[in-house]
Amino acid sequence: MPHLVIYYTPNLDDAIDMRQLCRTLADVMLAQTDEAAKPVFPRGGTRVLAYPATHFAISDGGAAGRAAGGSGDYAFAYLNLRMGRGRSSAVHQQVGLALQKACETFFEPVFQQRHIGVTVQIDEGTEVFDVKLSNLHPLFNKN
Amino acid sequence: MPHLVIYYTPNLDDAIDMRQLCRTLADVMLAQTDEAAKPVFPRGGTRVLAYPATHFAISDGGAAGRAAGGSGDYAFAYLNLRMGRGRSSAVHQQVGLALQKACETFFEPVFQQRHIGVTVQIDEGTEVFDVKLSNLHPLFNKN
Amino acid sequence: MPHLVIYYTPNLDDAIDMRQLCRTLADVMLAQTDEAAKPVFPRGGTRVLAYPATHFAISDGGAAGRAAGGSGDYAFAYLNLRMGRGRSSAVHQQVGLALQKACETFFEPVFQQRHIGVTVQIDEGTEVFDVKLSNLHPLFNKN
What we know:
Radius of gyration of chain A: 17 Å
Structural class of chain A: alpha/beta
Oligomer: homotrimer
Number of domains of chain A: 1
CATH topology of chain A: Macrophage Migration Inhibitory Factor
Shape of chain A: elongated
């Protein structure tokens, strides 16, 4: 944890650099510090994975967009961050707002060009079993 | 919201028109009205995204299906709808039954031809942060 | 149910046989029995689906891995099992540990070769609507 999974319409691959968005959002998460000035997220455990849908249907399929002078080729991205339990509500809001701000900047050119919806949601995990196998974490816990 | 994500085995792409299923299910959701005769879901926020798995394993891998005279090439679709909080239990059931009925119709030819499982589940979101950036919603909120 | 979805970085497709991992994990689940010596999971309802991400960002992007003498090409797999409600905590732990053990064996060669994180989490479903359409279950309920 944290795991940020991005579900999106494949037409976005022509409009933005999704790989760069993944990197940007990972960096945003890694930069977050909590009330005690400690990193919110473990460096070795921060991941962003993005998945273009193979098939999709958005809203009315394009009619209203075309009527408004657009292409009707709606785009959509759903960013779902799952983080471990125990952070404060203030930290949840801080992380969410930081991701929101990054998305506003990143998607701004797309908003100028087409009809698009971007949703950012954070879930606090409620898993009943949880284990990590990792030789990544030790890279950052040595010193 | 709502977001309906379909996880499925890629052998279904040869059996049904998954793109059409996405459209059909989006239309089913857009047609739902609540106890006050208002739309259950926002028109600009209704999305269906479908993802064929790259790798998969289903049940016993095919032995029982072949023993029953089938191909053993099992198919599977998992429809997971996530909706916002605050709808009544009656609305949850109504939406679920409407999706179920649409699936029964859509998958009926597949059920005649092969062994398949289709699961429809609705989750009520428990997100701790939630924000939407959208120029889609205003298309439907003008009047 | 159960549904095990594997989200992973595509570089793992060069390192392991993900299809075989799906089969192995399905078999692990099918082999689980509860306190009453009954199968934990229905044979016809056990599914594993694996999805390589199209884009991703992991941890610091590779710097620490390269500094430690590795390639910096981090790998990651997130195994998320969702099961129905009502099993005991002991069963949750048993299933989780069995999946963990299978992953330890399966990923051991990868851990020798590169920096990788593998997370196994089990969620107990909290769905507000749930229906199964299936001609798979009857294959195993005949006798």
